[in-house]
Amino acid sequence: MDTSTVKETVDKVDAELSEMGIDGVKENLKEILNIKDYLANQLPAVVGFGLKVILAIFVFFIGRKVIRWIIKVVRKSLEKARVDAGVIQFACSAGKAVLYILLIFNIAVNLGVKESSVAALLASAGVTVGLALQGGLANLAGGILLLVFKPFVVGDYIVQNQQIGCEGTVAKIEICYTTLLTTDNKKIVIPNGTLSNSTIINATAKDSRKLEIKVGISYESSIRKAKKILTDILLADPDTQGEQSEMVVFVDELAESAVIIGLRVWVPTEVYWPTKWRLNERIKEEFDANGIVIPYNKMEVYVHQRGEE
Length: 309
Fold this sequence. Notes:
single chain, five-stranded antiparallel beta sheet
């Protein structure tokens, strides 16, 4: 049925209903027909937009796989070039963020959004996000500073705040955060802005460290004998470094209840703690075997009984 036939039918029905005292049907039927025509005219546009949305979703998933592949290739290339692990992690994080922004920008343009509108939206969003996330931008800048000046690299053991025990081995240096692993395998995530603005102790920056141990002996024990025992222990230990002149055994202090004797020696950084623990054990064993007394704090209590009056 064509449009003219429909209109004739509507006019005929409207005339019959008018004779029956019912008006307004013609206008209502015309509104319904107008809606039907409008939907019929808009249907191709709606279908086209739906197809664009489906295509955009498909492109997003394909683009995500492509981004992962690109990041993987970049990572392998940087690893072959023996680039620092922290630089690789930072570059991959930043590259991933940039590629996702470009992907979303292209999808928006293909959906019909104008480039100028997208650019203006990104600019305004950037200003808004920048004001809201000033700390995040500080972390980003801090990450760049850490990679440029390299106070530490992945694998170093650092101390960021001794008061709260913030220390561990550097596991990741990412775009905004650095991850540490403690000796008991706890993960500490520190903002790069905090790291770049704080004092950092890098315990593994050098190949060797100076080990110092102090122990107290009683005033009745022989200082000369104790110093000889410490010297022999240092010369016999496999991890002490340097010539005998690098090893120092000294009397550090004449304390109230003990003579404090100390030693200093260079040891490899990777065996610093095992060497310290082993030397402490050897010192105790040798002092006991040679009659050198290590005093400890003790309290003497005297009880006096008053005589009967």
